[in-house]
Amino acid sequence: MQLESLYQEIILDHYRNPQNKGLREPFDAEVMHVNPTCGDEVTLRVALTDAGGEPVVADVSYDALGCSISQASASVMTEMIIGKTVREAMEISAEFLTLMQSRGAAEPDEDVLGDAIAFAGVSRYPARIKCALLGWMAWKDATARALDGPAGEQAGKGGKAASTGALNGRSTAGEQVNGQARNGRAAADAAREQT
């Protein structure tokens, strides 16, 4: 019972003191998602940058209306994924999705989920799962859009494309290096298919 109480405190703390709330610039993509079941909504922005040819989540900011679970979940998510590569962030997102789909039966990995483990109890309540997932789904959507746009392509090129000749708007060297961005994009697409 003490563990559940601790988890409730984590959720309430993130609800009362949300991290990364408030839409910031610059950003590469912005999305708005609504949970039609309860009316919760989130507008989320993502900014990507390059780290050695691999796209990295440079910033995530959001504005949200809704229950404590949806808002706390978005706050926890931003703390966990900012600074991670898109691939790492997608792995964390997939682990959170697995937890939410477990109906309380999964043994969550605290090393991967950090404070998001506090939502383990939420997974036992199907009506609340969408609340907990709202910000995560918005982030995946925004990240996929950012990877598809010019910023995502630049993140995957690691700046190397600028030094080579362009062919149809892309460089042959950039194509090889851009495989990193495509892998991030593939992770985003695969994550969207899981939901």
Could you explain the architecture of this structure?
With 195 residues, the chain is α+β, with helices and mostly antiparallel strands. Helices cover 52% and strands 17% of the residues. The protein has eight helices and five strands; from the N terminus they run H-E-E-E-H-H-H-H-H-E-E-H-H. The strands form two sheets. A three-stranded antiparallel sheet has the order 1-2-3. A two-stranded antiparallel ribbon has the order 4-5. Strand 4 and strand 5 (170-171) form a beta hairpin. The longest helix is centred in the C-terminal third of the chain and has 23 residues, at 126-148. The protein starts with a helix and ends with a helix. The model is unreliable at 154-184 (pLDDT under 50).
Nearest-integer average pLDDT: 78
Global outline: globular
Radius of gyration: 17 Å
How does the major sheet shape up? 3 strands, antiparallel
What is the number of beta strands? 5
**Percent strand:** 15-25%
In the sheet with the most strands, the strands line up as 1-2-3
Please provide the ordered H/E string of secondary-structure elements.
Answer: HEEEHHHHHEEHH
Q: What low-confidence regions span 5 or more consecutive residues with pLDDT below 50? A: 154-184
Structural class: alpha+beta
Query: What percent of the residues sit in helical stretches (DSSP H or I)?
Result: 40-55%
In DSSP terms (H or I, runs of 4 or more residues), the helix count works out at 8
End-to-end Cα distance: 31 Å
